[in-house]
What does this fold into?
Amino acid sequence: MYNIYICYVDIDPMYKLHKLYRLLAYWVLAPLIAWPMIALALISHRLKNEITQAALVISRVPFHVGERARYLFYRRLLISVGADVTFRYGAFFQYRKARVGNRVLIGYFNTIGEVDIGDHVLIGGNVNLLSGMEQHGFHDPDRLIWDTPGKGRRVIKIGSDVWIGSNSVIGDDVGSRCVVATGSVVTKPIPDHSLVGGVPAKFIKNI
It folds into this structure.
């Protein structure tokens, strides 16, 4: 004769609440936040060829709901956004002409211009990815810098398997399998398999 015991496990109420919040954020709250901002961004792009203002607003939505809302926002607006991409609080893109690969972390308070980001990329906080180094001109001493045209924006390419340290400024291409040390200023193309650092960033070693 065998005795059968039934064990009831009471799931932590906070776990249930957290799971409910994640479901609501994913399916209800994030789309409600994202779609009006998408509409505003499309109008801004049509009028001014930029999406900065709407992107700034949605960048300040906190918690998981904010990250999900930003993902929906940029999936609709950028040229392409891959899977498993996280847009942290305060990070924003200025223009629609950008691509983001798979498994990318966009760190806190990043400012991003026209870029093409590969797969498996980590970008620390407060990083500025410029749209090239020649947006403004200063070659004519007889004209104010304000009034001197540059060559305009260009797409910066970030390869795959890259780690960009916090507080860096990226003004040129970064190859694949690269590390950019914290606080660096990249002014020239970085070849594959490089560790660079400094102001301006200089080659340290192959990796």
